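Journal club side-thread
Mid-discussion, someone asked how the predicted structure for our own chain would compare to the paper's figures. Pasting it here so we can look after the session.
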Amino acid sequence: MIALRQAGERARGATCYVTLEPCSHQGRTGPCAVALADAGISRVVIGLSDPNPRVAGRGVEMLRARCRGRYRRLARCLPEHHAGHIRRWCWRAAACHPEACGLRDGFIGREGEGRLPSPGRTFRRVHVLRAECDGILVGVGTAIADNPILNCRLPGLANRSPVRVVLDTSARLPLDGRLVGSARDMPVWVLVSAQADPDRVSALSAAGARSFGLQPVDGRIDPHAAMRALGQRGLTRLLVEGGRRLPLRCWSPILLTRVIISRGDMIVGEGHSPFAGRGLEALCEIGRYAMQKTVPVGSDTMTRYLRRMD
């Protein structure tokens, strides 16, 4: 819509490329398909059909009825870019992306200590990832050990901080911690067991955190149920920044669309490793993930693994 307004009359007769099928319904703005037709666009190239039932082909029909020229759809493009939106409407669940920061010897910290800070320039990359997601997930163990605030601390992106989500079966999240202490300024959601202590849950709510009760499976919150609950509440992309155990609990091709791991140049010699001590490469082999690319970030590296589509 902004691009059409900026183009003005220059849009008439032009070809428009969009990554997702233009909407056909009234939302915060009018239907995008109508706006394209009214602007005089003669040809639309669409990267991906919209699974939202309010759209689901209606945008295409609207364009075919009102736009002169040809319509073309590129069905193979952009599923990863729109993974959160697709998962929300097809599986009613948020897409989650585990992110682990390790060191050159494969550890993420020393035994008895919390996670080491993201190494070097990786800090900036991680905070860009936070700004790109609408939720960030940790387990209560990490929340207690590290006392993180989990906001976006890059200049100009503070208002893009995601919803902070804690998986906390027994409602143990400390009331005097940084997460609860900042809950009135930045949202904190706590996923607890439906059988959690009601006094603890009430105390979290009184401090500004939102609590959601889920039925536990084998005494713990089921990650699949958690993703469904978050997707139903509007979250589409979830960055998982847990320690050793949470990323492994979320490890499923159904849940994960990509995995990101950063490696710094520091050596600690011994300690705890990501994914509960199991090698990432081995997990990717059994979990249908393939390395997409490795990017140097100063003396660090950041590698992204995508779910195989075959």
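Post-session note: Residues 47 and 77 are 5 Å apart (CA to CA).
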